[in-house]
Amino acid sequence: MILIIIAYISITLYEWWYLNKKSRKKRTRSLVLGSAAGMFLCLCILYLGKGRWTVGEMLEGIFSPIDHWMKAGR
């Protein structure tokens, strides 16, 4: 997990440097850094929950009700 944090910090610092170098708008900076923070949060949730559930179970939980709804209409 420490290596993941170091990688995300280095990527975020590089993005910040690039955005400042190219004089990007404040909205662009917010979108880029916000998406990086969101991806980091999702990665942390996946890392911490890797023993409790799998991605397949998550997808089944999302799409199973939709599948049942579609089959009910037949």
Helix/strand layout:
Blueprint: H1 2-21, H2 26-48, H3 55-72
Helix pairs in contact: 1-2
Count of distinct structural domains: 1
Tertiary shape: elongated
Helix proportion range: over 70%
- Largest sheet report: none
- What is the assembly state of the chains in this entry? single chain
Runs in which pLDDT lies below 50 for 5 or more consecutive residues are none
Q: Summary?
A:
The protein is mainly α.
How would you describe the overall organization of this protein?
It is a single chain. This protein is an all-alpha fold and 74 residues long. Helix content is 82%, strand content 0%. The chain has three helices and no strands. The termini are far apart. The model has no long low-confidence stretch (mean pLDDT 87). The chain crosses the membrane at residues 31-49. Keywords: Membrane, Transmembrane, Transmembrane helix.
